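Example (one chain per record):
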Amino acid sequence: MQKGFAEATNLLVYRGEAMKSWSLSICAILLCSVAVICNQTALAQATAAADTPSSTTGKTTYILPEGWMAAVTKAGIVLSPPESDLKIAIVEVGKAVDGKAAAAAAWDAYRPGKAHPFKLATLRPPRNGWDEQMVVDYESSPNEHLDLRSIARRKGDGWTVLILDGSEATSEKRSGAIGQINQSLRPAGYQRESFVGKTAHPLDETRVATLIDFVQKGAADLKIPGVGLALYSGGKIVYEGGVGVKEAGKSDRVDAHTRFMIASNTKSMATLLLAKLVSEGRLGWDDPVTKVYPSFRLGNDATTKSVLIRHLVCACTGLPRKDMEWLFSTTPQTPAADTFKQLATTQPTSKFGEAFQYNNLMAAAAGYVAAHLYYPDMEVGAAFDRAVQEQIWNPLDMRDSTMSMKTALAADHASPHGEDVDSRLTILPQNLNSAIAPYRPAGGAWSSPHDMILYMRNELEEGLLPNGRQLLSKEALLARRTRGVPTGEDIWYGMGLEENARWGVSVIHHGGDLAGYHSDMYAIPAAGVAAVILTNADNGPYLRGPFMRRLLEVLYDGKPEAEGDVAAAVKRVAAESAEYRSKLTVPGDPKVLAGLAPRYENPDLGPLQIKQKGNATRIYATPWDSAIVTRRNDDGTVSLITSDAELIGIELLVGMQNGKRTLTLRDGQHVYIFTESPS
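Predicted structure:
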């Protein structure tokens, strides 16, 4: 799987932006797991009415999320969401040879004789009072659609193991709560590091140099050719520029005005347009969407009537990701109004405010609704382009920013990079990135370090422009930071912005991910500091989290952890890539490839074609094409795997249905069957 997307799935240790998975579960498999839990003797159980600090019999502390149930069993604590097909067990196993052995002992206590085959064990740095941490992954077949994982943590000579066991669909739906549980798991008596009450250092010349050195070394270790970087402190820009090159193999250096796709950071600009309308008295956060955009529809009539303006951008409506239409059937020529057509046929899978579920279509609708209010006589895509330019970029003097890929590519820009199936760094085409255009308020903007630090300056100054005029009211701007659904421990999603207060100091930020472009932007109001990091390779997500940590270390004399986080990520990436590659047949099993139909069709995602090109078998979707390789699964089934670097790791299960050949694609909560069709 492409690293930019794969990073986002590893919720148990690091939380990324784009939650992705590629398979669907079989109920019979899940019922086996649930039955074992039910047969254990529950000594006590309770459902949490709110997020509740809790502890095990061994005094290991954790948060029990609202709506979850905790049962004390002979194995340990077993936590359950409202759904019955996923469990988290916390098992204290005592002494063990290592983390892998501790995980095996925990599974044996939790579900005797039912463990899946071992897949991979990777170390994480010691953190939060633990002396050692190891993540253990297990094999499962695509049809099972399971999320199976252990995190073994050692304090002294005793091991505590967190087991994640169950449906990948529910794991995606409950990702925020899973993050809360995992991040809050700490040994008895440990006191969290906190910067509360500390005065931040200014970003002087020495501290700026420290941050630049950190980025430069991290980029080199992670094979990221270029990084755009900008820093703001003490009421001024103290650094803007970057490290490395715009394109691997060339000498042009990244500078302050080099353009990168900022992907989902565009969402906060869509919410800023809404906030301006609220500030102007033309809109209320609690207005029904249909009041200002009567044709809006989400699922059924009852759901449609319940959707308020704030729900468009809160990731709290229970609407699951629905990105496959973008990935498989969208082109730059797809009308922007397609956003509303797709929403009309989509129903939430959890209640409003119950769970964090990130949805790009809703964010795109937010931008288009705002643009329609500004320019009601224009097509919504063109209206958004004009609105963001005239209402945000022009007042903030953001002259490098554009919604046009053509404009960006004709100017100073960074090229996207990724790794192919053999971990070779490759310059990526822009096919997938171009296809975001119809949904561009969710992720289509280009910008530079210079422009983005001006944007984050506006966040720090709460809408006050350098000329003394307010871009919008302070209250409207800050409403976007209202703590909404939790996405982890002391982490909340607002409206196109996220707040991370895990160290006692609020960091307002948001990340962005597209093929070969990964970025983040940060504002730390208590310190009067802002920062922007823009990367041009798919290992970028492994740098931006540690960069936030390093920034806080520099400001508040924090424990030196960020460098260790990068070093561990480098080893983990190598180990995961090697394990993944070991299961693939490259260039592909000739018997499997020869048995494929030349054309398949899905009513929602359109056609797929299989063609021979030179020595490679390639698959063609509407916006992209890729070489395919094969993988034989544990249950005897065979999967096709895309192997080009632009979108590596899309899995299509080869099968038959009603006498026709099929390819089955799964994401977290959807299944799409492509059926053989006439050429």
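Caption: The CA atoms of residues 46 and 591 lie 54 Å apart.
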